Amino acid sequence: MKKTLLSLLCSGLFLAGNSAYAQRYLTEVFPVVQVTSDIIYGNNISVLTGSPAPQDLKMDVYEPFGDTETARPMIIFLHTGSFLPFPLNGTPTGTRTDSTVVEMCKQFARRGYVAVAMSYRLGWNPASGDQDVRTGTLLNAVYRAIHDAKTCVRYFRKEAAVNGNPFKIDLSRIIVGGQGSGGYVAFAYASLDKVSEIQLSKFINFNTAPPTPYINQALSGNFEGTDATPLNTPNHVGYSSSIDMVFNLGGAMGDSIWLEAGDVPMVAFHVPSDPFAPYDYGAVIVPTNGNFVVNVTGSYGTIRRANMLGNNVSLENPLAPYTDVYSVRANSINDGHKGLFPLYLPGPQAGPWEWWDPSNPNHNAGLMTNPNMSKAKGIAYIDSIQGYLAPRMVQVTKLPGYITTGISTVSNHVEVGTYPNPSREEVTFRSVSASNMIRIIEVRDMTGRIVYSNNNVGADRITVPVTEFSNGIYVARIVSDNSEQSTKLIKQ
Questions:
Q1: Angle between helices 375-397 and 99-110 (to 10 degrees)
Q2: Taking CA 377 as the corner, what is the angle to CA 376 and CA 382, rounded to the nearest 5 degrees?
Q3: Concatenated DSSP letters for 364-419?
Q4: What kind and span of H or E run contains 147?
Q5: What is the mean pLDDT of the chain?
Q6: For the whole model, what pTM was predicted?
Q7: pLDDT digits (tens, 9 = 90+) for 22-72
Q8: Cα 88 from chain centre
Q9: How buried is residue 54: exposed, middle or buried, by Cβ count under 10 Å (0-12/13-18/19+)?
């Protein structure tokens, strides 16, 4: 492993209603990011060369340098590349050091997250003249990548249990996202969990006798990748791979029927004219020869169903809607589907958030779907993506900045009230019921630093002195017998 320090500019103000302030998780508050590269998080069977062989799985970890927080939420981000190695994939991207991956992870870390850029196993046969071979090998490539992403999540939980949590991860707050091919993996991570879902007719090879699913779990392993099979080596068995949310930049879901009520919330960014992944429902086509692979559900259809099932309710507080420019723009063009941000561009385009060196061997091929490619253009799109994504990640995981409406409401009744607010000398937290005891009070400033903490309250009210707090905005986290909620405090 090797460590480097990247000197980065801290910038930005988050707009909440009519107020503007810098705040950890919502804006970039750390000027320097520390990167630990080439960490091996697992080992599994690769079929890239046609002969199964063990392959180390590697990642780079981005952290806010100088951070004193001991429990940071984590975001794992998967690169694009058509499930084939660069440059053989015919695109200018395809590694965990792609410009988009690096910039996304830097911005996450500057906001106070631990960000992980992970590589995953590649390999399928898009050149085959046999549609069953194309479909089967692609589906298995996605399946292997899901295993690798779950291995990565389990790695951090094992490290916390065995080695003292060296990266200081808040294991209760983990998010998975992906770009392009990585978007396919992120969507599938959140939804593919039943045998019936890999036995839909479009995932069956009817040219065998008897017809067989393209994904053979006896060969490739269970959904978690925790059993030993000819093409799967279990990693970190016994640790959870649960996550809180997924997001994608392009990509699609194998089928929207994979989604069920109770699946984690989803946020999607998609260029509707993307030729590689349909915006709603349509075919995956091999770019080089135009051959059909499989029909899938794009971001529009996926988010529409996620909302219909109620899975995206936690993305926002309906009593305090987002008023930032990114949300306003997305809501004006997403047909009311919360969590969806379409990026309309003329002609067939994909990945406007990408850029690369013009000496890249696939430079001209990349320009066909990303004309006028430049670093400035790519970062502008990433800034918009981060601006839309940041408050929704905070809302889902209830981080400081979590939107409440003064006195928090849970299950349609008030649990804990806070008064006076604003305050000069002291703030009282009071439960509406003596039987609903307050257990924990934690107050953080806008950088995420804990300025007050009491983990053993055991009363239906508690008064906290704030005279020594600097004037400004704080976020209080209150855990009671019946709820966990956050609210904004103002010290005058």
A1: 50
A2: 95
A3: HHHHTTSTT--HHHHHHHHHHHHHHHHHHHHHHHT-TT----SS-EETTEE-EEEE
A4: helix 131-163
A5: 89
A6: 0.81
A7: 789 999 999 999 999 999 999 999 999 889 999 999 999 999 999 999 999
A8: 27
A9: exposed
